[in-house]
């Protein structure tokens, strides 16, 4: 039995079957429990540990339905629409769940109904089981008003008004009930009667396509795992729908309930089973901690979490389309080997400051440019290699506001042969920053043909602080 402080008193938070047979139910004050039973084994309630356990069981339950929601402290809801035939029917599905959880040491009560609220009510306040559509009113009639779970104040008001069981509501009009006790009560009553329903909010992304393989005997060796059939099945589904996967997930379900999930991203819609298999093999080989089969895997699932239409590709005479596809394939292989975050690309940002004009993001991410790249389709006006922070250089100029004639960097003097500029960039005054001075940028070529990008920080004669020169970047 566990106890926790609730309503300014130490109360029973959870009790096993033996304690409940002695009249020790959750919510009972601990002092009252000690008066009823002198010797009680008590531990402090750990809500975080209970929630973590509930999450782990929900992860394990992913094998039965892709749509699962948890309702702490002790309930998991499954949307089993369209999946019962895989297990031979509703009764067989429930039997499999109860048997597997019993082997893990859990005692459970299950209920199947037409709505989530009805299943919750029959499971928590009834005898559970399968509620057939033609027996809804009969099964609901015997449930106590606590099954509405509308709060203590409304429960007390209902009991004072003579409502003890849900059958007391069946012959009464709903409008007076909503006016007296609030619309929440009638909404929950309609859900328990399976007149209306609320959709579950899945705790994990629902796969768009999936393929799974169940094993009669758990597989204990990684060498026995073959991805060919799973990849072929999944890619066959994608081709029939004209889709390609962009985000994949490979799940390994262990016999003891633990699940290992491996994610994979693709830079282009992917529906080729051979490529998909090779990418996952590379991903598995690159894991820092190899998969631990434990007592063996009894199921594997390959799913598509996100995809795009798989349209025909028209090859151009210049070969740019094929080159782009080859680059995307290379990015996919590198990301599978080293991780999605290790391969990056630059996206443009809406600012003129060079150090803020681009942002590195994973190459397979959906991040888009927030501005146009400067100099698109022309000779780059800014170098690809930038210094941050920019090193200061010593400059000699013919006129104060003119381009430099000579500058010294890293102990080497460079005579300027050609100069272009200035490109003036004002500070971003709307940001809280110490960078409040205007910059004048110059493209410089020295006498040896090396090209640099320098800027003058500040104005001569207009500001108190001295003017300084910096080297922002180097052109290739």
Automatic annotation (TrEMBL):
Residues 3-121 form the UmuC domain. The keyword DNA damage applies. GO terms for biological process: DNA repair. Keywords: DNA damage. SUPFAM superfamilies: DNA/RNA polymerases (SSF56672). This is DNA polymerase Y family protein. Pfam families: IMS. The keyword Membrane does not apply. It comes from Pelagibacterium lacus.
């Amino acid at each position: 039995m566990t106890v926790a402080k609730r309503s300014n008193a130490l109360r029973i938070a959870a009790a096993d079957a033996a304690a409940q047979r002695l009249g020790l139910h959750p919510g009972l004050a601990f002092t009252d429990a000690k008066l009823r039973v002198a010797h009680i084994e008590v531990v402090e309630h750990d809500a975080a540990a209970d929630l973590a356990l509930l999450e782990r069981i929900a992860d394990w339950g992913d094998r039965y339905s892709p749509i699962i929601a948890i309702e702490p402290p002790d309930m998991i809801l499954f949307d089993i629409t369209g999946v019962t035939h895989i297990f031979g029917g509703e009764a067989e599905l429930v039997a499999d769940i109860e048997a597997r959880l019993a082997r893990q040491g859990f005692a459970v009560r299950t209920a199947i109904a037409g709505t989530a609220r009805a299943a919750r009510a029959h499971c928590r306040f009834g005898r559970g089981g399968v509620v057939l559509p033609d027996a809804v009113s009969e099964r609901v009639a015997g449930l106590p008003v606590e099954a509405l779970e509308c709060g203590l104040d409304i429960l007390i008001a209902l009991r004072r008004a003579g409502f003890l069981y849900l059958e007391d509501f069946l012959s009464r009009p709903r409008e007076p009930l909503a006016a007296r006790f609030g619309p929440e009560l009638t909404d929950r009553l309609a859900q328990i009667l399976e007149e209306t329903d609320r959709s579950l909010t899945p705790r994990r992304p629902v796969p768009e396509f999936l393929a799974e393989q169940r094993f009669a005997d758990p597989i204990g060796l990684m060498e026995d795992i073959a991805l060919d059939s799973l990849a072929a099945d999944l890619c066959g589904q994608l081709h029939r729908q004209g889709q390609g996967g962009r985000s994949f997930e490979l799940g390994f379900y262990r016999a003891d309930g633990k699940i290992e999930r491996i994610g994979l991203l693709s830079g282009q819609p992917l529906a080729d089973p051979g490529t998909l298999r090779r990418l996952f093999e590379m991903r598995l080989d690159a894991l820092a901690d190899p998969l631990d089969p434990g007592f063996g895997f009894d199921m594997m699932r390959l799913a598509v979490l996100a995809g795009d239409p798989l349209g025909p590709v028209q090859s151009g005479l210049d070969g740019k389309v094929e080159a782009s596809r080859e680059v995307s394939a290379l990015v996919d292989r590198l990301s599978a080997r080293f991780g999605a975050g290790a391969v990056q690309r630059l996206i443009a940002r809406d600012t003129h400051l060079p150090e803020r004009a681009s942002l590195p993001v994973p190459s397979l991410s959906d991040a888009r440019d927030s501005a146009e790249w400067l100099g698109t389709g022309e000779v780059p006006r800014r170098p690809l290699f930038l210094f941050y922070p920019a090193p200061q250089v010593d400059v000699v100029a013919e006129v104060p506001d003119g381009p430099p004639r000579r500058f010294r960097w890293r102990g080497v003097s460079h005579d300027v042969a050609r100069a272009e500029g200035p490109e003036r960039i004002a500070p971003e005054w709307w940001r809280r920053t110490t960078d409040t001075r205007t910059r004048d940028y110059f493209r410089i070529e020295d006498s040896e043909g090396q090209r640099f990008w320098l800027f003058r920080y500040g104005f001569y004669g207009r500001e108190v602080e001295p003017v300084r020169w910096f080297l922002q970047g180097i052109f290739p």
